[in-house]
Design a protein that fits this description.
single chain, mainly alpha, Fumarate Reductase Cytochrome B subunit, three-stranded antiparallel beta sheet
């Protein structure tokens, strides 16, 4: 996809927007987010007795929970195979890069940030780790119902514990994306792909400087 900034008219002005996320990146994000919300909702129904009683069809909810997990893994694999793999590798390198500016930023010392700030890098690492642990523990729980040799008490504790931590992480993510004035503009980047250049300069100056030095 094109990475050049584009001019967009709005109320007689021409704010400059810059491409932040590719279509592949946005698709990956929304597929993961959608599947997670279904998994979280069905998981809460299975965990909370009153919710299970209210729904009244626990076996169906369990099937939805498991099938959504399988569909999520298949969809992620398809996006990686059919999407912009080169761009995803570049994104992975950016997320994996953690320098002195990132460490200082986490200590609330203002430092210029790249396309992803230090908090977003930590969130991505946490999300990937949780996704893997959810998948492994979920498959063990499913298989343990069919073979007692794979039924471990620690598996359900891990799966449930991940759920509670994930709820806190998601609530924080939603607050920053939808409510907090300084960061909610970032949601535009994940919906349309582009963000205002002035906003990007304020929050991700190192990324803008890198683009300028490379002639983009």
């Amino acid at each position: 996809m094109a990475t050049e900034p584009v001019l967009v008219r709005a109320g007689g002005t021409e704010p400059l927007y810059i491409r932040r996320f590719s279509r592949t990146e946005r698709t990956l994000h929304w597929v993961h987010a959608s599947a997670f919300m279904v998994l979280l909702g069905s998981g809460l129904v299975l965990y909370v007795p009153r919710l299970s009683e209210a729904v009244g069809r626990r076996p169906l909810v369990k099937d939805i929970h498991f099938d959504t997990g399988l569909a999520w893994m298949l969809a992620i694999a398809l996006i990686v195979v059919l999407g912009d793999r080169r761009g995803l590798r570049r994104t992975l390198r950016e997320l994996d890069s953690f320098d002195r500016d990132d460490r200082l930023w986490l200590r609330r010392i203002p430092r210029p940030q790249g396309r992803f700030n230090a908090g977003q890098k930590l969130n991505a690492a946490l999300t990937a780790s949780f996704a893997l642990l959810f998948a492994v523990s979920g498959l063990l729980l499913w298989y343990g119902e069919r073979d007692n040799r794979f039924r471990f008490a620690s598996t359900i504790l891990l799966h449930d514990g991940l759920m509670f931590i994930s709820i806190a992480v998601v609530l924080g993510h939603l607050y920053l994306a939808l409510i907090y004035p300084s960061t909610r503009h970032a949601l535009r980047g994940m919906t349309t792909g582009s963000v205002r250049r002035d906003w990007a300069w304020q929050h991700h100056r190192k990324w803008i400087e890198g683009r300028q030095s490379s002639g983009e």
